């Protein structure tokens, strides 16, 4: 099997929307009402919103491919693009998703390694993310990668307020 990571451009916006909606729905549909899930998807993953995010120089998106099929993606933010004011020495992993049928192939690990590589290239001192408090598999994955809980913040799935744990990893 051949794995490849490729940076997304504005030309990839439709593919980004497709994989974003698919992976987000797969991850959260069982624990959330269709109304709240659809409201979030319509707000976060519409083409104009994704074009705006892709055009931000402080945000970067990457697809991960397995045997030339897009299987997941990563979004990282620095500076003012971070969803919390964590400072100039931090990089946020805002989104890291892999299609369900491709989980357990190590693709999430490759995406996280890419995020760490970007952070180190930009001389960041820490990397952080928010993860839904009920997403036990993701929390275990992040802990295995050296992240520890350092706080929490609200996340809105539609108008349903949920809690995301803030997890941070200090870089060397």
Task: For the structure shown, list the relevant keywords.
single chain, 172 residues, alpha+beta, Aminopeptidase, 5 helices, globular
How would you sum up this structure, described in words?
This protein has 172 residues and is an alpha+beta fold. The protein has a single domain, classed as Gcn5-related N-acetyltransferase (GNAT) (Aminopeptidase, 3-Layer(aba) Sandwich). 35% of the residues lie in helices and 35% in strands.
Concise description?
The protein has helices spanning about 15-30, 35-45, 45-55, 105-120, 135-145, and strands at about 5, 60-65, 70-80, 90-100, 125-130, 150-155, 160-170.
Helix and strand arrangement:
Layout: E1 3-7, H1 13-28, H2 34-44, H3 47-55, E2 59-66, E3 69-78, E4 90-98, H4 107-121, E5 126-132, H5 136-144, E6 148-157, E7 160-170
Helix pairs in contact: 1-3
């Amino acid at each position: 099997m051949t794995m490849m990571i490729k940076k997304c451009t504005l030309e990839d916006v439709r593919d980004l929307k497709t994989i974003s909606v698919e992976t987000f729905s797969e991850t959260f549909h069982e624990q959330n009402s269709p109304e709240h899930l659809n409201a979030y998807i319509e707000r976060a993953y519409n083409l104009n919103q994704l074009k705006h995010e892709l055009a931000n120089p402080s945000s970067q998106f990457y697809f991960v491919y397995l045997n030339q099929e897009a299987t997941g993606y990563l979004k990282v933010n620095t500076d003012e693009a971070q969803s919390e004011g964590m400072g100039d020495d931090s990089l946020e992993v805002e989104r890291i998703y892999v299609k369900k049928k491709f989980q357990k192939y190590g693709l999430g690990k490759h995406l996280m390694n890419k995020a760490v590589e970007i952070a180190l290239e930009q001389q960041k001192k820490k990397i952080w993310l928010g993860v839904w408090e009920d997403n036990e598999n993701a929390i275990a994955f992040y802990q295995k990668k050296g992240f520890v809980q350092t706080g929490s913040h609200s996340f809105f799935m539609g108008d349903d307020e949920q809690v995301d744990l803030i997890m941070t990893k200090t870089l060397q």
